[in-house]
Amino acid sequence: MNTFCGDGVPCRDVFIEQYGVGGPLTVHWYGTNGSVASVLPWGSAAATRAMAQSEGGIFVVPEADPDAITRPNGNIFPWWVVGDPLAPEEETSREDDFLLVDAVRECLAGEYDPARITTGGASAGAIMSSYLMGERDYFAGAAIWSGGTTFGELLVP
């Protein structure tokens, strides 16, 4: 686990495993009520981790901001942009998660193939990945498991 701070990003923990140099950099986002520890051993995170390992890449899973949106029903939406844009108190315009990925990418520069940066996730993590593809032009692709965009928005990278 690594901690990233600064450049407009509150301190955040990021799980990083490096299996080689020159392979892909893949960033995985988990779903509602998840955590790094809860997703690593199974499902989409395990599949993404295995791919990074087999290709000598780097596997990254950010931990959600502890101030992430909590719904009245107790569900925690881990990524700022995933909240309901019709509820401005949820601050869906915060770029913390985008800036965090930028910082991780810059920190690891030279360790991965810049043409093979991918993102992916399940549920809220899939939504986060969709938004990343629309907001950042350095991603080669995304793996979306059970998610997409919110409220029918069309995103074109």
Strand order of the largest sheet: 1-2-4-3-7-8
Distance between the termini: 30 Å
Total number of helices: 4
Radius of gyration: 15 Å
What are the low-pLDDT stretches, counting only 5+ consecutive residues below 50?
A: 151-157
Helix-residue proportion? 25-40%
Tell me what portion of residues adopts beta-strand conformation.
Answer: 25-35%
Largest sheet: 6 strands, mixed
Give the overall shape, derived from the CA principal axes: globular
Order of helices and strands: EEEHHEEEHEHE
Compute the number of strand runs. Answer: 8
Structural class of the secondary elements? alpha/beta
Average of pLDDT: 86
Task: Give the gist of this structure.
With 157 residues, the chain is of the alpha/beta class. 25% of the residues lie in helices and 30% in strands.
Topology:
Layout: E1 2-6, E2 9-18, E3 23-29, H1 36-39, H2 43-54, E4 58-62, E5 69-70, E6 76-77, H3 96-107, E7 112-122, H4 124-135, E8 141-145
Parallel strand pairs: 3-4, 3-7, 7-8
Antiparallel strand pairs: 1-2, 2-4, 5-6
Write up what this structure looks like:
Helix content is 25%, strand content 30%. With 157 residues, the protein is α/β, with parallel strands linked by helices. The protein has a 6-stranded mixed beta sheet. Strands 5-6 form a two-stranded antiparallel ribbon. The longest helix has 12 residues, at 43-54.
Question: What are the defining features of this structure?
Answer:
two-stranded antiparallel sheet, 30% strand, 157 residues, disordered C terminus, 4 helices, six-stranded mixed β-sheet, alpha/beta, 25% helix, globular
